[in-house]
Backbone:
DNA sequence: CGAATCTTTGAACTGAGTCAATTAAAGTGG
DNA sequence: CCACTTTAATTGACTCAGTTCAAAGATTCG
């Protein structure tokens, strides 16, 4: 890590204002700022603004480019033949959009801006061509792809939670962690998506999202004010996702009440390689 | 497509017997047989046999290589701190394992053989080095990555189904389709995974898998004999996944009973690029 | 300011989770 | 190869979390 995420985020806003962006900026936003160089400084990439509610890419459209979110946020969706819209991901600053089209002829999901947003366009052909000269760009692509695969795996874990309370808790913590890694507050969250979007993402009814958020607020774990959510008791939320079933189990365990030391995601960190077999 | 999938699958078995494998074989198994050449014929890759129940890769292990399943099958899992095992995917012939480690330091998920199996090891460093000479190998990697991202997105769609009956129906159809694309029967399915594994994959209780399979069998949609499942009425299964809620809605709609022309996955095909905005 | 969308809340029903117990299958060792 | 152990699968009973339907507030947007 070179500069603090906060600083790069601020720098981003200036870059966005001028609607110009270099490959170095891209590396910065992707957490690879240390790999930036004069060579990458010289590569200017087009930015594209997307107004709130507008499509950045449509499902089925021919795949030509990846997009890196520079500002704002998107929801990535797949629509089935009945018109039901499945939200696959929320993309914020630093996230790539369109990776499911890699090596395919067309995009497998669409992306809608949840607010006025901006993206850097990375035409795949250009990226590959440059990648042969600058290995760091090749690495960037691989990192992005691996991260996306891993993240969708996390989403499967998210949706596998048997209780919707746990799903929401996991979602909030996941969201908070990503905000934090961008240098923003991990406590005060501004959700740009609707409850319906969250519901689709988590695979529950939208009324349930409302009810669960209200319940968590009543219990003092979070504070909800419209689309602003504050995480008041993160350890309690972390604890909560460990339960298989919601309230009853929680109440039962309330006596014990000892907080374990887990990271915000509640997943074990994978740093130490484990022994084989 | 060059050779029929069936033929390549048979050829595969011979290659496996000799425990040697070329890059051309890899391209064949990945559906890129047309791109094979004398150059790829010359690249010999190591195969590895994995006995049933053994780990191919462990979560957290340093990432060094991708694996392509040459025979048998695997389950890809993530284990959380409580010891709960989340199945993220089932990998069969032609599937890549380990893509979530791309560009990362360590694997984010593990893989266990569900039966005696064999994989081709593709050390990433080697793959990248060769990719600079042979663009087709670069394309192979991208295709694999994009496919994996898309597939995990499909899994999210799978798990988002509100009724467990729909989830199971979708799962069976998904599985059948993949078997078909390998040239096997899309009717008679040999499931190498346990009901528990399916349950974890779909995010439901394992008893529910039993019950739903029994119910589907009672209705004559499938025939279950231990781990062998035969899809007797695929159109009915396709129809079923369109319902939001299971039995009651199905019974209600039984009068109408008109089958639409959908592909086995029940998702709309994305071939025709759509208009912008 | 009105229309549309989003959000919250209520009530009723039911699907599926949990617990528990039985049966079937697969693996182990003598 | 058979007795034995262990694991997987099925089935039942019960309960409740969450979906569905409906309707009233709140926000946003034109």
Residues:
């Amino acid at each position: 890590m070179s500069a603090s995420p906060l600083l790069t985020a601020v720098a981003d806003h200036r870059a966005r204002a001028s609607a110009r962006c270099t490959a170095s900026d891209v590396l910065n936003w992707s957490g690879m700022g240390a790999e930036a160089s004069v060579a990458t400084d010289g590569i200017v990439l087009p930015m594209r603004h997307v107004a709130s509610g507008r499509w950045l890419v449509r499902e089925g459209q021919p795949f030509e480019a990846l997009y890196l979110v520079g500002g704002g946020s998107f929801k990535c969706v797949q629509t089935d033949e009945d018109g039901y819209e499945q939200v696959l991901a929320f993309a914020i600053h630093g996230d790539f959009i369109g990776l499911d089209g890699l090596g395919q002829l067309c995009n497998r999901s669409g992306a809608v801006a949840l607010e006025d947003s901006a993206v850097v366009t990375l035409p795949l052909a250009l990226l590959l061509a440059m990648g042969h000269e600058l290995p760091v760009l090749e690495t960037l692509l691989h990192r992005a792809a691996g991260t996306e695969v891993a993240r969708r795996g996390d989403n499967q874990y998210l949706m596998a939670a048997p209780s919707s309370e746990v799903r929401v808790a996991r979602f909030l913590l996941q969201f908070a962690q990503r905000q934090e890694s961008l240098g923003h507050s991990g406590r005060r969250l501004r959700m740009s998506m609707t409850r319906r979007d969250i519901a689709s993402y988590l695979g529950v009814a939208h009324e349930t999202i409302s009810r669960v958020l209200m319940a968590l607020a009543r219990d003092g774990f979070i504070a909800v004010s419209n689309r602003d959510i504050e995480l008041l008791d993160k350890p309690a939320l972390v604890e909560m996702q460990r339960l298989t079933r919601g309230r009853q189990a929680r109440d039962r365990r309330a006596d014990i009440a000892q907080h374990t030391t887990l990271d915000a995601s509640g997943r074990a960190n994978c740093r130490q390689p484990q022994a084989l077999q």
